[in-house]
Amino acid sequence: MACLGLSGCGDSGTHTRLVFALQPSLISKSSVQASGVRALTSEPSLPDIVSSDGLSFRLDQADASLVDIRLTLGTDRTCADVKDSLASGVGCEDAADSGRSVLTFAGPVLFDLVNGTVLSGGELEIPPGLYEGIGFRFDPIVSGGDGFRARTRIFKDGQEWSMDLTVPPGETLGFASTNPRLPVKEGGSLRVTFRQDTWIQDLPLASCFQKGDLTLTDSVLSLDAARGECQGAGDRMRTSLRAHGGMSAHSF
């Protein structure tokens, strides 16, 4: 696997990173700088995600395997402006006509989205400067598995159930910055974020749970097998995940 930027490259200088994470997340300066290590369990937990009728789920884990990452440079910025500062394994393509130039990362890169850390594939180093948008594709986390998986838990009536939120491999997503000239400083990070508070906010899961319309197998609830007013809940969750993401610049 190609070294995509930092970990294992033998370079201890100041780097600017492309990071994928939840919003909000448990990301911290130490976690960004410690690739491949999950945060300690003593760290604070994430806010619960909540359905439209108030059923709360604790979000414990969220991972995504990414390939074909294409990061769009900001207005009037071309490959000539960044070619001398690209890390090993990072490509750049100038668009035809009046399109934007893009940085390319082949992947796969596996991200722990809760902590914003890379679990495998090497960190993504980018040149400081202006950025506009990003596109990427989910790859199987494990052979034959999902490209994105979030693990949640619910405690109700003295019992515990789990529910996995998944996106299959092959799905392509893209997010744009609200600022087409989003500035990322040297040593900082460009964060691509998924807004988990939106994933189930339009689903009446409390009602479906009460009616038995959420299929339960070995203490695991399935949105894809839901019935009644929650039929199609898995697809509706994935639609929300695709629609609600963003980009922001940070100092670490």
Q: What's the helix and strand layout?
A:
Elements: E1 17-22, H1 29-33, E2 49-50, E3 56-73, H2 79-82, E4 90-93, E5 102-105, E6 109-112, E7 117-120, E8 124-125, E9 129-138, E10 148-156, E11 159-167, E12 172-176, E13 182-184, E14 189-194, H3 205-211, E15 215-217, E16 220-222, H4 233-243, E17 245-250
Parallel strand pairs: 1-14, 11-16
Antiparallel strand pairs: 1-8, 2-3, 3-5, 3-6, 3-9, 3-10, 4-5, 6-7, 9-12, 9-13, 10-11, 14-17, 15-16
What string, H for helix and E for strand, traces the elements in order? Answer: EHEEHEEEEEEEEEEEHEEHE
Unreliable parts: 1-12, 34-42
* N→C terminal distance: 26 Å
Return the average pLDDT rounded to an integer. 88
Shape: elongated
Number of strands: 17
Number of helices: 4
Q: Cα-atom Rg, whole angstroms?
A: 19 Å
Main sheet overview: 13 strands, mixed
Description of the structure:
- The protein has one domain (17-35, 45-250).
- Mean pLDDT is 88; it is low at 1-12 and 34-42.
- Strands 2, 3, 4, 5, 6, 7, 9, 10, 11, 12, 13, 15 and 16 form a 13-stranded mixed sheet that branches.
- It contains four helices and 17 strands.
- It has 252 residues and is mainly beta.
- Helices cover 11% and strands 39% of the residues.
